Amino acid sequence: MSRHADARPPATDDDLDWCHDAVQGVSRTFALTVDVLDEPMASHICIGYLLCRIADTVEDSSSIAPDEQAHLLRLYDRALDPDDDTTVDEFVHAVQPHLPPEGEQSDDWMVVANTARVFRTFEALPEDVREAVTPPVRELVSGMAMFVERYSQTGGLRIQSREELEEYCYYAAGTVGNLITNLVTRGNVDSERRSRLYDTAEEFGLLLQLVNIAKDVHDDYTSENNVYLPADWLDEAGVPQEEVVSPEHNDRTASVVKRTADHAKSFLDDAQTYLETVPLREGNTLAAWAIPFLLAVGTLRELVANPEHAVTGEGVKISRQEVFAVVTEMNGSGSESLAEMREIISRQPFHRATTNAD
């Protein structure tokens, strides 16, 4: 829950508290972000993220037929459109049959079940905030619907090329970069700074999404029947896309994981530029965005060292000790330390580096 509840934008206190608690359950990374934002930005980002997460949960579901997924996403998009008569209740009614029983709902599905509550809280935000959040959320939703429709015959996404991978990452995360930028550029921001932010916002989002794709190969296929590693790259490595997690291909698939991680690295410089440019206003903090950036750097380090762990299900992640060290350091640091921390983390776990320095 936010540290500054008394400064939150006007809304039903119970609803806003519920939204802040819900973020803690659905995303460790975004929970860290919201925790180190001040108000009112903490609530703006929290609610904006939940709006995105509702669509993401529907898109990721392996129990909903693709045609129905696309229908639900299109309906959700219309409910978000301020110029459309579709109500959130229509989406809630349509998604209801697909909800797990109440006692068996994951944190993600609990958010979907409470879509009306999220909308109610969103609608209580100032008009300029809603105008900043709605377009990128709708673009994310429509992009997800498009990809579901594109692969409706395969029962899951099967990314074919690097270009399509980047297209997917744009809709899934580049749009979120634009959402953040819309919020932080409201008001007086000089044109050069604004241009630099929008020039690099999508790259910030693509970096984070590519890291997730590289590290979650096993779970994406076994839990959601999605393969984001491009078929072109897998084919070059001699791996049929439908056998992406088959043990006999582990080493070859791991080489594609490493290739994906290397591709993610190409977005690091622009992402860092974004962080060094982002205005710190209305509760925005550098730590909120530098922490996921630096954790992505650490995850890339581990992916390059052990790409096979993303394929076998063993998992690729950085330790809690390193997360704690990064969070602690960034809460007391400015942008001038960002490049140095990135360099350290790219070579070794940050908590070990700080211990050695002591």
TrEMBL record:
Domain of life (superkingdom): Archaea
Alphabetized InterPro entries for the sequence: Isoprenoid_synthase_dom_sf (IPR008949), Squ/phyt_synthse (IPR002060), Trans_IPPS_euk-type (IPR044844)
Protein's recorded name: Phytoene/squalene synthase family protein
Organism name: Haloferax chudinovii
